[in-house]
């Protein structure tokens, strides 16, 4: 498994060549699927078990944070590497796939706490199953990406949550202000297997590949109560293949709602949409990120109610239903929370004009404060440097995610809140009064120093530049973009990116 380039040579390494080869194959299949919307692909199983695909899949799994966790077999990526058995491990997977002896192991289930006291079940596959799922995803994703509509943003290459929020902002400024703010109840747990496999077969005629998808759906779960056989619904949360399968199932919703926008539809052109408005009819558009979606219309509340009924009927075909507690019909003047942002149609300060504004949602702000509290308990004996490093990681990721919102006040308060937490912790730990705190942090000129040690400086959220995220629309790069020159670090994360 050579990784380095030849000595004294500018030639790409063997690994770079393999990554480039896989990327070019993916681009080729994507273009075939894009060219012929009715094509069904066969002989894909050989790609899933191909050494190049398995090697790229291994690199992806090894770089993921989940590489440190083990499945039901107790094996981790680190153990395989330390034993020097990566080549043997991948060869064994390829052999079991080819001779038909490969069987996915049950996933290990853990419960992740959620706000409100609830928990989310997360399945942890074995390292072997993760590699096979990643290889399978690399084969299927280029084909199904050709069918996915641009209104879907979750778990897709070159798309992100900010694009979904920017699209809502864009159409809100064009009159689309009545909204169905929807959420699917237990999406990953209730997708009907028969319906999902039917959608997969519309594009994949290779029976071995379809059987492999079915095997992962039927693998079962190992919980504290023992082995639970898989039912006829649900995709394994935590599995690498699960987001793609969920997008395949939910693509029927995108297609149903956006049917009038398809070529020849009465909303497919600006003139057609203007004509509908002239006759008092509304136009609509869906923006979806995984199982969270918003349907916007420039019509009336009745239009939204009709769209809600339509969405419920379409979702029922794949075994899903809307969450009554999280789904509501509203006007943007009341605001909606979407992907951690609060989006609202309101008047500018000082009596200015009305516009769509994007803020940080209260729940998202409460969560980061809870995270800071949990990292800085007053009786913690941990070294100050270690805590600063952990708090910085949380603050930096949170601040850069929300830097495209109207976030100045939130960032300022978060800086103050974090500073107070550290000061209260140090006062408790060292039994300091305020005079000693001032001696620690006050400069001779009376200003306050940043909390820091020799090895770490506390992150300041107010230093993050706040700027509007521009709506990219049709300018989002296509996965058909010609792959760059071999760059392993670029291709490992997602060979289609």
TrEMBL record:
Domain called Reverse transcriptase: residue spans: 93-343
Region of interest: Disordered: 475-497
InterPro entries named in the record: DNA/RNA_pol_sf, Group_II_RT_mat, GrpII_Intron_Splice-Mob/Def, Mat_intron_G2, RT_dom
Tree of life domain: Bacteria
EC number(s) per entry: 2.7.7.49
CDD domains in alphabetical order: RT_G2_intron
Pfam families per UniProt: GIIM, RVT_1
GO molecular function: RNA-directed DNA polymerase activity
Record keyword Transferase present: yes
Record field: compositional bias (Basic and acidic residues): 484-497
Signal peptide positions (record): none
Claim: Nucleotidyltransferase is one of the keywords in the record: yes
Keywords, sorted A to Z: Nucleotidyltransferase, RNA-directed DNA polymerase, Transferase
Protein name, UniProt field: RNA-directed DNA polymerase
Native species: Intrasporangium calvum (strain ATCC 23552 / DSM 43043 / JCM 3097 / NBRC 12989 / NCIMB 10167 / NRRL B-3866 / 7 KIP)
């Amino acid at each position: 498994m050579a990784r380095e380039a030849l000595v004294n040579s500018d030639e790409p390494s063997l690994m770079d060549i393999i990554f480039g080869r896989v990327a070019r194959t993916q681009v080729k299949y994507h273009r075939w699927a894009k060219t012929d919307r009715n094509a069904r692909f066969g002989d894909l199983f050989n790609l899933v078990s191909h050494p190049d695909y398995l090697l790229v899949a291994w690199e992806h799994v090894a770089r993921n944070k989940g590489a440190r966790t083990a499945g039901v077999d107790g094996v981790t990526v680190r153990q395989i590497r330390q034993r020097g058995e990566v080549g043997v491990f991948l060869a064994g997977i390829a052999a079991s796939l080819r001779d038909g002896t490969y069987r996915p192991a049950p996933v290990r289930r853990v419960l992740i706490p959620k706000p409100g006291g609830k928990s989310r079940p997360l399945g942890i596959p074995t390292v072997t199953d993760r590699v096979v799922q990643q290889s399978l995803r690399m084969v299927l994703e280029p084909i199904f990406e050709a069918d996915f509509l641009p209104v879907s943003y979750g778990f897709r290459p070159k798309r992100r949550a900010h694009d979904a929020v920017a699209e809502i902002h864009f159409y809100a400024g064009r009159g689309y202000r009545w909204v169905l703010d929807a959420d699917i109840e237990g999406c990953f747990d209730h997708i009907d297997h028969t319906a999902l496999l039917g959608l997969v077969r519309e594009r994949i005629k290779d029976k071995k590949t379809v059987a492999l998808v079915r095997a992962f759906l039927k693998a079962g779960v190992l919980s504290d109560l023992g082995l639970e056989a898989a039912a006829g619904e649900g995709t394994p949360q935590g599995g690498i293949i699960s987001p793609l399968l969920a997008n395949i199932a939910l693509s029927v919703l995108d297609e149903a709602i956006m049917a009038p926008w398809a070529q020849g539809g009465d909303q497919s052109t600006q003139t057609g949409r203007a004509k509908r408005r002239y006759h008092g009819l509304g136009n609509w558009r869906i923006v979806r990120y995984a199982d969270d979606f918003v349907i916007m219309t420039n019509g009336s509340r009745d239009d939204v109610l009709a769209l809600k009924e339509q969405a419920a009927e379409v979702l029922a075909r794949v075994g899903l239903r809307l969450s009554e507690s999280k789904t509501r019909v509203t006007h943007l003047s009341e605001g909606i929370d979407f992907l951690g942002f609060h989006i609202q149609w309101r008047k500018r300060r000082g009596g200015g004009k009305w516009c769509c504004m994007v803020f940080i949602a209260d729940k998202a702000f409460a969560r980061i404060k809870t995270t800071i509290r949990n990292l800085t308990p007053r009786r913690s004996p941990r070294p100050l440097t270690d805590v600063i490093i952990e708090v910085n990681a949380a603050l930096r990721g949170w601040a850069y995610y929300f830097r495209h919102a109207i976030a100045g006040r939130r960032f300022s308060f978060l800086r103050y809140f974090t500073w107070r937490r550290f000061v209260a912790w140090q006062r408790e730990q060292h039994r300091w009064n305020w005079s000693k705190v001032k001696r620690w942090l006050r400069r001779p000129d009376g200003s306050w120093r940043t909390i820091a040690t020799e090895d770490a400086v506390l992150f300041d959220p107010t230093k993050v530049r706040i700027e509007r995220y521009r709506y990219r629309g049709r300018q989002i790069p296509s996965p058909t973009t010609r792959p760059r020159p071999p760059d392993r670090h670029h291709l490992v994360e997602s060979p289609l990116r």
